[in-house]
């Protein structure tokens, strides 16, 4: 007579069946092999500063987001006309930087920084432009953008970006600013949200222009649309003010003649 064992439910099952209910597992050679050790790359001072500041921003700054699409066909035509008679070639991003500055000049309540005891209202628009470098993201600043023509902006951004990649920027050239433009459109990114760079209150995240079917005055046509997301510090800028800035920016992009006006 076979020996019986107690089942988990309180009954009895044959010992042979009980032994089969707990199968043994044999580890393979691959499972016993140690995992590859990752390379350890010490953080640069730039990378550590970026990590600290962006962590503080995301933890301490109440972000909200304003999103929309801008049609850029007229902007592309303007760029083509400017470059036809200019030595320094103007990029779409250069025109976007100027549009941001003119929008903030039009809505000065958005050209501000939050202070612990007072709101800081800036008298000029200094636009930081995000530049990827081997040491991490750097944001050199173009000062008084609202007073500069596209060719001036293009020349200054090219020079600042070159020195940023070489690690030769001076502190005053990347500290401060009143707003940032971060453009990933050249990488094919269609839409993203960026983290505010304190003490600034806004950052414009620019996506790639993409041809799409659009409706215009009751007619269907193909247009080039660019997605834009504005991250806003709600302590300093209310939703209605942010919406006004976005509306002004969208108008300047879609009716861009003012971008090349003196």
Molecular structure report:
- The chain is α+β, with helices and mostly antiparallel strands.
- It is built from seven helices and twelve strands.
- The strands form four sheets. Strands 3-12-11-10-6-9 form a six-stranded mixed sheet, with helices on one face. The protein has a two-stranded antiparallel ribbon with strand order 1-2. A two-stranded antiparallel sheet has the order 4-5.
- A hairpin with a 2-residue loop joins strand 7 and strand 8 (136-138).
- The protein starts with a strand and ends in an 8-residue tail after the last helix.
- The mean pLDDT is 89.
Tell me the helix content: 25-40%
Number of strands: 12
**SSE sequence, one letter per element:** EEHHHEHHEEEEEEHEEEH
Can you tell me the overall shape?
globular
Mean of residue pLDDT values = 89
User: The biggest beta sheet, please?
Assistant: 6 strands, mixed
Question: If helices are DSSP runs of H or I spanning 4 or more residues, what is the number of helices?
Answer: 7
Strand content: 25-35%
| Rg over CA atoms | 28 Å
Would you identify the regions where 5 or more consecutive residues have pLDDT less than 50? none
What does the secondary structure layout of this molecule look like, with pairings?
Elements: E1 4-6, E2 12-14, H1 15-20, H2 29-32, H3 45-60, E3 63-71, H4 73-83, H5 92-106, E4 112-114, E5 119-121, E6 127-129, E7 131-133, E8 136-138, E9 141-142, H6 150-165, E10 179-183, E11 202-216, E12 219-233, H7 239-254
Parallel strand pairs: 6-10, 10-11
Antiparallel strand pairs: 1-2, 3-12, 4-5, 6-9, 7-8, 11-12
Helix pairs in contact: 5-6, 5-7
